[in-house]
Design brief:
InterPro entries: GalNAc-T, Glyco_trans_2-like, Nucleotide-diphossugar_trans, Ricin_B-like_lectins, Ricin_B_lectin. The protein is of the alpha+beta class. About 25% of the residues lie in helices and about 25% in strands. The structure holds ligand LR7 and manganese (II) ion.
Length: about 425
Amino acid sequence: MAAYLHKECKLRLFCTDIPPTSIIITFHNEARSTLLRTIRSILNRTPMHLIQEIILVDDFSNDPDDCKLLINLPKVKCLRNTERQGLVRSRIRGASIAQGYTLTFLDSHCEVNKDWLQPLLHRVNEDSTRVVCPVIDIIHLDTFNYIESASELRGGFDWSLHFQWEQLTPKQKAQRLDITDPIRTPIISGGLFVIQKSWFNHLGKYDTEMDIWGGENFEISFRVWMCGGSLEIIPCSRVGHVFRKKHPYVFPDGNANTYIKNTKRTAEVWMDEYKQYYYAAQPFALDRPFGNIESRVKLRKNLHCESFKWYLEKVYPELRIPKDASIQKGKIRQRQKCLETKKETNHEIPKLTLSPCIKPKGEDASAQQWTMTGSRIEHVASHLCLDMDMFGEGAEVDREIVVNPCESSLMSQHWDIVSS
Ligand code: LR7
Ligand code: MN
């Protein structure tokens, strides 16, 4: 593992006379080797007086020993959930027993780099409303090598509320006088950050109704910015993380449903009238249950937070506001028959067919539901878009109406309603 720190970081002095932090790591069925790598790297590369404790929250992994055996290591404590809670409620549980001045959250498959903690704690110690993240390097999924990632990135997202890393604009780069300066970020990726404990509590911790995985980073990011804090990435702090292609664990309610529930709660509580753009990008969310949000709405009111409009103007002016957020929902009918998709064995993509519009009881009516947002027509049940495939060449071209994965840049997926 190379250090990858900017040489300028050596010249920067970080105060080390700081109160210790509680490191909180939640996990569900993490491989023992990666969990151990996370903890060993912390113990090897952190001045001991900065660690109050390392709190592991075992989110009901299959093997209870994963957590129990680790308390033999210095500073390590272990809590085990008696049922699967998901990362939000697990982190809150860890935070509730934390005795440090700050909370440092990490995923369970990380390797912290040399001098990773001081720059983070230093920033929060100066101003307790700052929530700060390291630069996240890559631990290779196959080789487990530690690979340096680009350091001039910040967190961004699109209206379907999917996180993405973004390059700084030339103007933002020019404004940074020193490459070691913190990077203000509209959103954090979610897993690796330091927050002062009483500020975390004051701001309402997390939304405890969010399940398993996903969306909580939007909620906490909007909340921190809109309610008086800020989010930063600290270039002199680096932590490696294993980026996985798919979730190595089960979602009891399904992956998509859980993500929609969590992001819908975020949109409903924090995005004001701008939530229409979320629904336009994610029409499937319109009908999905999302629980009760009263207490979070009340929290926002009690904290006297800014509007989402303020957030867009002050924090994320780069997010483009779509021209058209209209959504139409319904069936596509020809006489008594309606357009629906039909899954064929051995084919990943279903075929289009016309069937009687009234489905017999017990059959899924959503097979005939379509939404039109902008010029895109999406099949509600499969999330696929109405498209046109072309075969052959020149005068011999054959066209066929099909469904395909949605891609807004494809002209063959653009449709207009023309009233006759
Ligand atoms: O039911 C669960 N219970 C858990 O305790 C599901 C997960 N977990 C644990 C899990 O073992 C892991 O330690 O929660 C942690 C995060 O889960 P991951 O590693 O599967 O998530 P991720 O790395 O794919 O996703 C990122 O976005 C998540 C949104 O909910 C969380 O905020 C993750 O912490 C976050 N990870 C990072 O920010 C690391 C950088 C990745 C990027 C971009
Ligand atoms: Mn992770």
